[in-house]
Each structure stands twice: as structure tokens, then as C-alpha cells.
Input
Amino acid sequence: MKTYRSMKTVLGIVSTAVVLSFLSVVAFGVELPEQALSHANPRVQEVMAVQEAATPDLMAMPDVLGTAVGQNNHGELTILVFVNLEGKNPAASARNIPKSLGGKGITVKFTEPFRALVKPPKVPAVSHTAKQTTPIQLGTSGGWGHDLANGYCCGGTLGSLIQIGNDKYILSNYHVFESDIVSGGNSRVAANGDPVIQPGLIDVNCNADNAQEVATLVKKGSLPDNNVDASIAQVVSGAVDPAGSILEIGTISSNTVAASLNQAVKKSGRTTRLTRSKVSGLNASVSVAYDNECAGGAAFSKLYTGQIIIANRASKFLAGGDSGSLMVEDVAINPRAVGLLFAGSSSLAVANPINEVLDFLGATMVGN
Output
């Protein structure tokens, strides 16, 4: 989710997508509780197999936005089918969805489309939008330094610190750093070496002179051909905390952990700041539309698979401008990364599995 700002108004826009994988741990045949309902669980795998086979037909039905594996109100594993509340007739569409497939139950979840949202809140005690003294902490407002076109400026979240070889980079989303692919509204496209700034243009009245350059763009072109919405920028010497500290979270672990159902997670982002929630779906397939520049025209749509779904009631976990936030396990000290957040609706958020992101980049997390 990336946020747009005009010279007079602030708009929220969210793209829809995110990915993460999950591992369960089994010792002497007993599932450990914190990992019991992960991708490695045989019962989850059985439901995933039916879900994956049925997804193309389900998503061809009117108003269906995507699918995932989750739990129903009785705690039973089920295939979740997301139905568009803004569709022509969501109730009728829901009635046409079968109650079960392949012996596995289906549960309908109504939601708005996965997209960008919400106006920024009032500045909190710990500001995620203010210009910081270097070296900065992450989980803060930031973005491409030229992200202004068509009368608007855009931005998202500088999420976390990663390492490739001997160099350190800020990790965020493709649609935060490098989604300007036409020279239309600003006579330029995103290029290697472009400035990545803190705060983002949306928080400095669309004037980059009021921000500071903290990194330089290294284009990875994750979209549209890959299953992650990820981009990186090489850190300017002395500009970013070398330990990768994140606002209101602190230093994280250099290890990662796979997602599992009901897993407690948190994130630090530009708009909603430090928020907490739980994983509610695994192996999600969702379609996300992307613009060709800030407030621009349609560029392409991307069908993601294997994504993580997180409860996002009333956009309290993730909102416009939080794109690029790192989702970590909700523990007090050295939490492990779970996923890279990039999209959502007012009831659900989506993340790429962090290990898939790191594998794409050939990177590791910076942390303890």
C-alpha cells in the first residue's frame, strides 16, 4: 500500500498483494503449538491441494477476489473464498459458491477489494512521518525521491535492512521504489542510482528539498514476472542505523520464521505505526492491479500465489502508506521476520513470505 498526496488533499491508495511461507516443526510425531498449522502440516497440505486445484474456477466466478487456507468459526481447516463487497451482487455471488470441494469445507469471507486506502492519522508520540536525525530507524515514511506526477506525490514505508554480500540495503516494495515505468506525468522513469528519501514526498509537501537522501535505488524488477512486490535501495554511508533498528520494534533477529495460522504478528509502518494482528490465511491467491506512475494509468495486473493473509479490521493493522513494512512475530526481543506487507482491504492485509523475498534478492536480514 502506497499513499498518494496532492498539493491540497491527501488520498490513500493500496495495491493488493503480499507473500510468505510457513514451516511447522514436528518432534517425535507431536506438533509444536506455535507451528502446528503451517505449510508443513499434513492437514494443511491436504486443504491446500484442494484449494490450489479449485482456485482458477473459483476466481472465474463473479465477485470472487481470491482464496486461501484458513479456519472457520469452529476452528476447522477450511478453504477461504474472498467475495467483493463492492461487486454487483455479492450475496448472490456467495450463494453460488459451493459449500465444499473435494471433501473440504468452504467459508466465504466478504471484503472490499484489496487496494490502497485511508487518510493519515494524527502525528503520534513516536512519529513515523517526521524527518529523523541520521542514522535513521526504519518503519518510517519514505520512498522514491521523484515520486511526483499528475498533480500528486506518493510514498510508502522504508521497511527494514537487508544485506547482499558486504553491502546493506533498505527493503521496501516495488510499487514504493520503482513502479514509475513511463515518462508521462513527470518526464522520467525510475532508474538505478535515483535517490530514496526519508520522509517520503507525501510528508514533506511534495518537496524533496524538505527530506533527506538515505539510499540510492537498485532496480530489481520484481514485477510483473515474479511472485514478490519487492525493491531495494543501497544505504548512503551513515544515513541508516547499521543494526537495522525499526521504530517501536527495535533490533530484529537475523533469522526468519514461517507463518502459521493464528500466529501473532506486528509491524511498524508509516501510517498506522506499530500495530498487531494475527495470521488468518495461508497460501492465498490474489490479483493486484498496478499503476504506471504516481496517480497514473493502469500498468498491469499481477496474480500472486502462496501469500499470507492477516486480519485487518477497520484498516487498523495496515493502511495506505504502510506498503513496504516488515511483518515480524509479536515477541518483545529480537523478533523474526515473517513477511513483507504490500496490500490489503479494510478487513484483510496481504504479505509476501519473507523467505521468498530474500531468495529472490539473494539477501539476508540484518539483525541479531
